[in-house]
Every structure is written in structure tokens, then in C-alpha cells.
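dumping this here so i dont lose it
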């Protein structure tokens, strides 16, 4: 054994051989599973020219691009409104006024517990709202309520001494929130915020249930076409990577923002000079103890 820590011992030769065997077996199993899936796809004719022919037509490509644009439009509106609603509700939950705090709590708990699809259908059917506003409203109410709890938890997670020091300097509560607590809480909240925005992006696919012509709705129209032998699997193989790519791009943007904040001069640590000797007493050399 070349080294060890309190929580981890460096593996010896037998353990390394065992881990290598585990890695080889796992790789073989995964490759076998992928080969079996490919075999089933070929055996059921999912790669035939008839099933993939629709994607070569300009009209089908325009349908998919229009659906993708509608998805991004709904997501952009829902994301902006959810962040605004989450900030408003979090402010209410952190309020010193009890009625405001209770009202914000009731709103957050109600819409956070309500299924998104139920809210979308209620707004679309009962309130007679158009598909896009109904979809955006349902996503905003749900994701805004969840983000309100994220914001509140992030602000409360900041060290209590930061708040007390700001109040000791004579700052008002609004100044403490804007200049002390929120800037520190944003870095801790960012992963949870991005995760919730990814959920909002995926939930835009519920729009096809209320006839909103988003990306999944466009894929459904292509997959149900009898002229192309119901190309359901090819449509899934085209649409799924695009959804995954959009979610990964959103996560990458969050990582970029996080790295940029760490490099910001406002958050970078300031070097403190080494303290030197104090000022000399009048008369020059400080007195020394007599030698014995």
C-alpha cells in the first residue's frame, strides 16, 4: 500500500484486478444491450427508407422547425415569468408582515402541489384561454412556486452573521437583501434554478395535449402518418437528441455563468498585506529589556 487517508485506502493489486474485471464485464453488458436494441430496430424495419423518407421533404422540415420555434418561445416566456413570480413569492415568504407571509405561503404550497397538466387544462378549457397563454400560465404558476422555495432557501442559507453585520451598519432590509444576501445566495441557488428551468423546458411538451403546435406536436403529426408506415421510432430518434441537446446547452450556460462569477473582481478574494512593525515611539529606537 503506497498511501492511505482516513476515508479511503489505496487499492492493492488484487483489488485493482477485481475492479478491472468489473469494468470489462460492465462494458460487455452495455455493448450487448446496445447490440440487442439495434437488432430489434433492424428486425422491425425501423431503418427502412419509407420510415425515414418524411425528413427529406421541405414541408416536414419546416413543420419541425416551426414546432421547435414554438417550443423555445413558450419556454422563454415561461422561464422569464417563472423567475419573476418566484422572486415575488419568495419576497412575500420572507416578509416581516404576517398576513403577507401567510398569503405567499398558501399560494406557493397550492400551486406547487397542483399537477402541471391539471392547471394547463383548467386554464385552457375552463377559462377559454388560447393554447400558448394557457401553456405558459400553467408552467409559470408551477415553476414559479418551486423557484420561490429555491430563492427563500438560498437566502436563508447565507450565514446569519452577514445579515446581522449589515443591519449593524444601519442598512435597511431592502438594502441587506439586494446588496448582501441575494448576491451571496445566487451562487448557491444557481444549480437548483437551472434544474427547474430544464424541467420547464421539458414540460413544454405538454402543449401538444391542448393543440399547441410545439415540437412534440409536430413529431406526433409525422409519426401518425400512414403514408410513411407510422414512423414513430424514427421521429423519437430525431426529436429526443434535440431535447437532450437543448437541456445540455442550458446546463452549459449555467456553468459558464458560474465560472464567470468566480472570476469576477467583485467575488474574488483580495490579498491582504503582511502586517509590519508598528510605529516607533518618540525618540527613535524602542526601549529594550536590560541584559542580565
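and the seq i came up w/
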Amino acid at each position: 500500500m503506497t498511501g492511505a487517508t482516513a476515508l479511503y485506502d489505496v487499492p492493492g493489486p488484487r483489488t485493482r484486478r477485481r475492479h478491472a474485471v468489473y469494468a470489462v464485464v460492465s462494458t460487455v453488458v452495455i455493448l450487448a444491450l446496445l447490440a440487442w436494441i439495434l437488432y430489434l430496430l433492424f428486425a422491425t424495419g425501423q431503418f427502412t427508407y419509407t420510415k425515414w423518407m418524411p425528413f427529406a421533404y421541405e414541408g416536414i422540415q419546416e413543420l419541425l422547425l416551426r414546432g421547435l420555434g414554438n417550443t423555445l418561445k413558450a419556454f422563454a416566456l415561461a422561464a422569464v415569468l417563472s423567475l419573476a413570480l418566484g422572486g415575488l413569492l419568495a419576497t412575500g415568504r420572507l416578509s416581516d408582515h404576517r398576513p403577507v407571509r401567510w398569503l405567499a405561503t398558501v399560494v406557493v404550497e397550492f400551486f406547487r402541489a397542483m399537477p402541471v397538466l391539471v392547471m394547463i387544462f383548467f386554464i385552457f378549457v375552463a377559462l377559454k384561454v388560447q393554447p400558448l397563454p394557457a401553456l405558459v400560465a400553467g408552467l409559470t404558476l408551477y415553476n414559479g412556486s418551486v423557484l420561490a422555495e429555491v430563492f427563500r432557501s438560498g437566502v436563508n442559507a447565507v450565514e446569519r452573521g452577514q445579515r446581522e453585520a449589515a443591519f449593524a451598519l444601519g442598512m435597511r432590509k431592502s438594502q441587506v437583501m439586494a446588496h448582501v444576501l441575494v448576491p451571496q445566495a445566487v451562487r448557491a441557488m444557481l444549480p437548483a434554478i437551472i434544474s427547474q428551468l430544464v424541467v420547464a423546458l421539458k414540460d413544454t411538451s405538454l402543449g401538444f395535449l391542448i393543440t399547441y403546435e410545439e415540437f412534440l406536436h409536430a413529431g406526433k403529426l409525422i409519426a401518425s402518418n400512414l403514408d410513411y408506415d407510422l414512423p414513430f421510432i424514427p421521429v423519437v430518434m430525431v426529436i429526443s437528441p434535440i431535447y437532450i441537446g437543448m437541456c445540455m446547452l442550458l446546463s452549459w450556460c449555467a456553468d459558464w455563468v458560474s465560472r464567470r462569477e468566480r472570476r469576477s473582481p467583485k467575488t474574488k478574494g483580495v490579498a491582504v498585506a503582511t502586517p509590519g512593525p508598528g510605529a516607533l515611539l518618540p525618540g527613535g529606537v524602542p526601549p529594550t529589556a536590560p541584559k542580565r
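The chain is about 70% helix and 0% strand.
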